[in-house]
């Protein structure tokens, strides 16, 4: 999504912070206390097996995410912001980690 961040920066005429990850301590730290009006774009979370419960690793091997890893993934996502923009309406019906809304009550 780095090219998207560059285009957003041009279109919005504002800084856009791109982080090449979407969960974990580095992302949580960047999103913990941003300046008012900050725009932070995170990498696509569908690259993570924890999003769908399964996936393919960097070596091309099929992997399954453990229940514990999925739980940690969701916990990290919950810490990242006040607003979530779902730009993938076609996946809204799927039981993916980012679509379930667990823990956002």
UniProtKB/TrEMBL annotation:
GO terms for molecular function: ADP binding; ATP binding; metal ion binding; phosphoglycerate kinase activity. GO terms for biological process: gluconeogenesis; glycolytic process. SUPFAM superfamilies: Phosphoglycerate kinase (SSF53748). One of its GO terms (cellular component) is cytosol. It catalyses: (2R)-3-phosphoglycerate + ATP = (2R)-3-phospho-glyceroyl phosphate + ADP. It is an enzyme of class 2 (transferase). It comes from the Eukaryota. Its EC number is 2.7.2.3. Keywords: ATP-binding, Glycolysis, Kinase, Magnesium, Metal-binding, Nucleotide-binding, Transferase. Pathway: Carbohydrate degradation; glycolysis; pyruvate from D-glyceraldehyde 3-phosphate: step 2/5. Its cofactor is Mg(2+). The keyword Transferase applies. Belongs to the phosphoglycerate kinase family. This is Phosphoglycerate kinase. The lineage of its organism: Eukaryota, Metazoa, Ecdysozoa, Arthropoda, Hexapoda.
């Amino acid at each position: 999504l780095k090219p998207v961040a560059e285009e957003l920066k041009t279109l919005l005429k504002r800084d856009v912070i791109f982080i090449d990850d979407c969960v974990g301590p580095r992302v949580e730290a960047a999103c913990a206390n941003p300046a008012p009006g900050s725009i932070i774009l995170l990498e696509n979370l569908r690259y993570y097996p924890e999003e769908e419960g399964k996936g393919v690793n960097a070596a091309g091997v099929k992997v399954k995410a453990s229940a514990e890893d999925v739980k940690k993934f969701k916990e990290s996502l919950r810490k990242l912001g006040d607003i979530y923009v779902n730009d993938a309406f076609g996946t809204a019906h799927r039981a993916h980690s980012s679509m379930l809304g667990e823990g956002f009550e």
